[in-house]
Protein: DNA polymerase IV
Organism: Carboxydichorda subterranea
Amino acid sequence: MIASSGAGHPAAGRVIAHVDMDAFFAAVEVRERPELAGKPVIVGGRRDSRRGVVATCSYEARRYGVRSAMPIRRAVELCPQGIFLEPRHHLYRQVSDRILEVLHTFSPLVEPVSIDEAYLDVTADRARFESLEALGRAIKTAIHAAERLTASVGIAPNKFLAKLATTLSKPNGLMVVEPSGVDRLLLPLAVDHLPGVGPRTAARLREMGIHRVADVRARPRSYLAERLGRFGETLYELAMGIDPRPVQPPQPARSLSAEQTYEEDITAPEQVRARLAELAAEVGRRLRAEGFWARTVVLKARYPDFVTLTRRVTLREPTADDALLFETAYALWRQLPPRPGGFRLLGVGAESLTRFSQPLLWEAPERSARQAQVDRLVDAINTRYDRVVVGRGRIFKAVARRSPGKTRDDAGG
Ligand SMILES: [Mg+2]
């Protein structure tokens, strides 16, 4: 219902809430052990931890300069009186699940983005409240009543602005950005507040005389695109307060697979490589056609005696990339126990699928953006021929070398 609403226009009528728990892990620990209240609590590892990293710290610890992702050793230097705790992820997950239940009482469209953060599309639900402030307060109150924890809430016409509002209001904050207030909020901000603008990009922008969002807005879109490529376009849209990404509740579990039974058993490892490359390319094509990323890759192998083994591995990041699917499946194949004979069937599968987000550059490092582009191009060609005639470089080589009988004239993309 909201998939295409708001396309491009910050004032197209959507109302998005972003909810972010304050110092979540540390706050849960303090709730469980009230004697820690008001103390610099640092969750991530014991103080003698050599490899530990700060997962979350209380606001009291932040005053000493302790930050998330900092090595525990450094945190000990900055804040020797800190209380250092091992994380209890199981507990945090339970609390997080209960908070999501609370959020679902405000809207059916809830998209968790991490254990302590979620977006809600409340466009249809705002009518139950006399104002957006009242809605935001109700969310905070409901969370606190259920879990005795504080959350910060941002409410705005899109995800980017809602998260910005949360960030600016933290901790225990509430900020509502009406469409008419977008420019007043956005224009004076330093460019660092725009997603995707890290220290390096910020330095580059400063060299171009761009310090604040207003400076981005003052440049023509083409000027930014020429200098920063596609990110320049994204930057321009952000500076305009535009973010078309819809709130997407998690999809029910789905999977995709491609398998093939061979007339003659496959024996040579390089033949296996070639077959797996084809199957992975097919799975990748279907993932992208249906708009999914896979987090788990599955290999299926059937021996001449019909013994069938499946192996799966979960990737660090979800992917729809042919080369990664292939390499993962091939690595799984190499780990199969040695058995006599070849294979009568091979299959590659994709599980734990998640929907593509709107492809904005700040979510995709440049390399994957380029790869995705190549994949789309290859898909366009293969869809026309309705079979795999073009593979990506690496895979194509594997396929071409092993199957000289097939037409590969179009390859090269
Ligand atoms: Mg948080």
